[in-house]
Design goal:
The chain is an alpha/beta fold. The chain is built from ten helices and eight strands. It has an eight-stranded mixed sheet, sandwiched between helices. It is globular and about 65 Å long.
Length: 340
């Protein structure tokens, strides 16, 4: 079975070396806690001005697994500072029951297994945005959203349910096929590996497992990874983002790796793009990144950095470098470069 810990996780190649330079008069990693409607503690972290300046807000939506928002490989992603092309605040919403610096391999808490679902993550982000609308005098009202993998699914729903989103990057979430279809057609029972009665039996076994989880979405059982409780699977398996994004009118950028198969099959992203084209939707762009898998960790460092910078430039309405994404300087039909 797939290693869903890595397949659904946000992949970053940025290493923690030193704290990037910040803006004078700003507060960084401002840690706050509010209550959800079911009275859970909801933690979030902000980088924002504290001198009367008003700026847009960039929301980073993380992928799956019980890892914290201030873990080494995410802590400084898109951190505002003088090296950025424009000024903006940054928001990261913590997962339930997760310590801020928890890294991959951390033991998942009961709080995480109980409450981490796609639906809860959507609601948690909406709750934080509601709170900031009421209290953040430094926010000028513009909202930029970036999400990857599970975070891309969550961000897609935020785009649909929070009409104040200005621009959004939605990465590695597929969206044209459901995750149940990913399992049946690409991961567990693909036609190139099993066929005939064997494939029928494989699909029947999968669907029986899906039905058990849907009928009993308990946090006490996990499937396909220690961080994937039965509670989360029903909120993933039948998600088809076509229905939401066909009605979207805000600019969105869909990003996917050409070589992504085990994380989220690139065919799912292509199906989403085809459906949006067929519906007449013109509010999206699609970048299919040559040679990239589920994240840019398999790319040479220079190309990975160029992709990160290109996505931010797109969000901020900046011009994309000529050797930037989607091709990253890779000639059409060229062999994939070796990663660093």
């Amino acid at each position: 079975m797939l290693n869903m810990i890595m397949a659904l996780a946000l992949v970053s190649v940025q290493a923690e070396t030193q704290v990037p330079e910040g803006y004078p008069g700003w507060v960084y990693e401002d840690s706050r806690t509010i209550q959800t409607v079911d009275e859970r503690d909801l933690h979030f972290y902000l980088d924002h001005p504290d001198d009367g300046e008003r700026v847009p807000l960039l929301l980073l939506v993380d992928g799956s697994s019980c890892v914290g928002q201030l873990r080494p490989n995410m802590r400084y992603d898109y951190r505002p500072g003088p090296e950025r092309p424009a000024r903006y605040a940054r928001l990261m919403v913590e997962k339930p029951g997760v310590a801020p610096e928890a890294s991959y391999g951390s033991e998942c808490t009961e709080g995480f297994l109980r409450h981490y679902t796609i639906d809860n993550r959507v609601l948690d982000h909406l709750r934080v945005l509601q709170h900031l609308r009421a209290t953040a005098d430094w926010w000028n009202g513009e909202l930029l959203v970036w999400g990857w993998s599970d975070g891309g699914d969550i961000a897609s729903q935020l785009v649909a349910y929070y009409p104040q989103v200005t621009r959004a990057v939605l990465g590695a979430m597929g969206g044209g096929y459901t995750m149940a279809e990913h399992f049946e057609d690409f991961w567990a029972c693909p036609e190139e590996r099993v066929s005939g009665e064997e494939r029928e039996a494989c699909i029947a076994d999968l669907r029986a497992q899906f039905e058990r989880m849907e009928d009993n979405p308990t946090w006490r059982e996990t499937w396909s990874g220690h961080d994937n409780s039965w509670a989360v699977w029903p909120t993933r398996l039948n998600s088809r983002l076509v229905h939401l994004l066909e009605d979207n009118t805000m600019p969105i950028l869909i990003v996917h790796g050409e070589k992504d198969r085990n994380g989220t099959p690139v065919e799912s992203a292509r199906a989403l793009v085809d459906a949006l084209d067929a519906s007449g939707n013109t509010a999206f762009e699609y970048w299919e990144i040559p040679c990239m898998g589920h994240g840019w960790g398999n790319l040479p460092e220079a190309q990975g950095n160029a992709l990160e910078e290109g996505m931010l430039d797109w969000l901020l309405g900046q011009e994309i470098a000529a050797d930037g994404p989607p091709r990253l300087g890779q000639p059409e039909g060229a062999d994939c470069p070796a990663s660093d």
